[in-house]
TrEMBL record, chains A, B:
Protein name: Acetyl-CoA hydrolase
Species annotation: Pyxidicoccus fallax
A single GO molecular function term of this UniProt record: acetate CoA-transferase activity
Domain Acetyl-CoA hydrolase/transferase C-terminal: 323-472
Acetyl-CoA hydrolase/transferase N-terminal domain segment(s): 17-221
Keywords: Hydrolase
Signal sequence extent: none
SUPFAM superfamilies tied to this protein: NagB/RpiA/CoA transferase-like
Amino acid sequence: MPETSTLKDRIENPELLAKVVPVEEAVKHVVDGHTLAISGFTKSGEPKTFLPALAYHFSQHAPQARITLLTGASLSEDVEGPLAPYIRKRGPYMSSAASRRRIHAGEMDFTDVHLSAFARNLMYGFYGDIDVAVVEVSRIRPNGSVILTSSVGISVEALTRAKKIILEVNTSAPDYTGFHDIVVPAVHPHVGWPLPVVNVRDRIGTPYVEFDLRKVVAVVESRTPDYPVPFKAADDTDKRIAKNVVDFLLQCREQYHWGKRLPPIQSGVGNVANAIIGQLYDSPFQKIRFWTEVFQDGMLRYVEDDAKFEYASSTAVSFSAEGRERFMRLFDRCRDRLVLRPMWLSNSPEIISRLFVIAMNTPIEVDIYGHVNSTHIDGSRIVNGLGGSGDFFRNAYLSIVHTPSTRRLKDGRTVSCVMPYVRHIDHTEHDIKCVVTEQGYALNMDIRSPKRRAQDIIERCAHPHFRPLLSAYLDMAGAGDEPRATDMQALNAWWRDYDEACRNFPKGG
Amino acid sequence: MPETSTLKDRIENPELLAKVVPVEEAVKHVVDGHTLAISGFTKSGEPKTFLPALAYHFSQHAPQARITLLTGASLSEDVEGPLAPYIRKRGPYMSSAASRRRIHAGEMDFTDVHLSAFARNLMYGFYGDIDVAVVEVSRIRPNGSVILTSSVGISVEALTRAKKIILEVNTSAPDYTGFHDIVVPAVHPHVGWPLPVVNVRDRIGTPYVEFDLRKVVAVVESRTPDYPVPFKAADDTDKRIAKNVVDFLLQCREQYHWGKRLPPIQSGVGNVANAIIGQLYDSPFQKIRFWTEVFQDGMLRYVEDDAKFEYASSTAVSFSAEGRERFMRLFDRCRDRLVLRPMWLSNSPEIISRLFVIAMNTPIEVDIYGHVNSTHIDGSRIVNGLGGSGDFFRNAYLSIVHTPSTRRLKDGRTVSCVMPYVRHIDHTEHDIKCVVTEQGYALNMDIRSPKRRAQDIIERCAHPHFRPLLSAYLDMAGAGDEPRATDMQALNAWWRDYDEACRNFPKGG
């Protein structure tokens, strides 16, 4: 049973125990111009003590310092917020309001990269030298190899490539020994090898990370547990979307002769994702498997039901406060039914394709031809990044983009999430097999022109309030297999009509 | 040494020899509403006798007939043109003017799919039942298994899935025994397996295709050789693009410590591709390997030089009339240095990623942020399809999009191939690492905001004549990390200025 421990319990290597210093000392290893690669994925396993201390250190001693910060995925605002003023370059994913403001203002350079590609690019040297790796661990083994905590992300690549290493031993985290499956990607001109994963549960690496101990310049203690993620219960719209997703899967089961075996599920994060996970639990599917990025609240009930659930693979666990309590109760069961892998493996195109993964993600908006905007509001300002959505959509057996058909803005307008065109495209029509809203679902799986597909998406997925306008656009677009309106005057008029429709959206619509 | 043979030489199985019928009889097996899956890839290995005969049959006896036609990639106009009026649905790639007209007019439904995905979708049943497979072969072995000809494409999936099979034995084709590496993709709920290819030369299947002989309803003879593809010598612009590509590769060799080993090259088809292949031949790189879709004219000189060349893998060979003669002279050498695979393998994300393939393709246009339009003129009318460009760009170690900076239209205007935004996106900024024109190259490999990347693409890749306009767009776009102009009036004015600049492009520019 995991418990809070002392630092001495957790550091079994005397050489590294001797390197324990106060965090105020450790932060001095990071200076202006450095590139940091750190642990952390969806707010799990981040260096929760080191980064805020580094921000404080800069504020006191080096307010002009600017660094490059590379992570697995998002950090919590408590960790990234204070450091944001000192970040000059950032990748490959963030959800910090402080960083976002600086990115939009052009003060922080953010590069949005497929997560699987980012981890490999890091190994290839595309991002240059890594000056310092900062990685949260739950235990240091006698030979100095480490056991990570609640996420893997890019921790392994960071420890492998960095010139200096700082380990943050989290004594409040449980000992995660047995959760991880650690493998380093091959780098040209070395020969790449097939990844021998043919089932979700297959482990192909080690449960610990090996690296060059001589590079460790400091070890610090952290007693801060992972920050909880918000959990919002599914509303009626979420539930209707979830029902449509499961209806689609049941149709596929018949049509493509799956038998009882549902292909492994990749699920995004958020209300709709949670609603789908709930709906799947109540579906006829048994022995469900998740091959996904994040193991989250909705999946915990599966762990308690061996008929319903077989196995899960992800790169992080991420819970609400309540979910975390349940996870701790189920810790040993989870270790037997869940594996945490580096994000280049959890998001590997090779494995996603081989396992016939069913991919699902929520976008900002889709268009009538099936192109997807996952990242940029108004096409100009990034929200978080595309994360692993492209890794999964592109290589999935079935790729499902699900969204409410409308979204209410703060200014009172209600906009359509099904648009004639989207102003930023992260996923093309070629990668999307099914569009789902609370209204229904439309397929892009058969031999059909984009124009016919558009009629279908409008009729089945768009909100009835916006359907006439979308059809009007299609008429205006004219000839071609995938027509776009090019008459700027007509287009202008269309946008005016649309804006009016957004204002006139019926209350409770 | 391959020679033209008699039908009896080529059909060693008595049961199938007994099924030889005149093509006028064989075509009767195809009726209105049928789905045909056939051999053929970039005009190689297509059923050159059957399809025109089928078109003639429909014209005489069933002018209302409409079929679905699925291929590997493009057919020659001699083959597809006459049949086009009878095709209702078409996928996944075509370059027929007759089909294109019908597609734009909405009379033919065309679905544009990544080639690797298309072959697998076919096996998964996503395109429904295949009524008839028509496959060109060079030989039928004693046990009835077949040796294909100059391409593989979807021939294997067609023979595996079809209800009825028609074999077209091409006695004018050489006996291609030993060229092919045949494997069928796994289908859920069967377990997928790792593809054991770790070098370009690794063969993992059989040199012949096995299938259910009872499904063969007819065997026909063909004496028509593959139609030659046009070959245009590289002009000055092509050569400057090629030089910039090779300069980029030489820079990478230094920066990423490749040593002498160039990662395998994927090359598109056309002048620029041929210029690059030529420039590589004159570069310091040795033991070059191609992992690509089509083995073409420019690669033949490599086959004669064992210091320069190691091995090639593709799904088709495709030559000009002159190239074909040279290929025939080098036939035995080619068999030892070239393998033809099904297109799901030649374009497999798993293998492209593992082998660190360097992908290169020519688009219609790119935008300043690195988004690529490969398929739609004016965003509305498809040209050919995206083919394997997405398979390669997305999974490559390095992805290079190369294009002349300008293109002269028939109406006399010269347009910029580097645009503020493209009206159809087939490949997103996330998948492109380098943009190359005859002006220079710009990278998308480091941590940099799209806006900074745009300044770089404008300065290094756009034609000097269009640079001020592109910079003006960027200024007009305003704030955000990847800003887009949304003021319709300003945008309108920009397009007017652009149109004028296209008209004023200096002669000999």
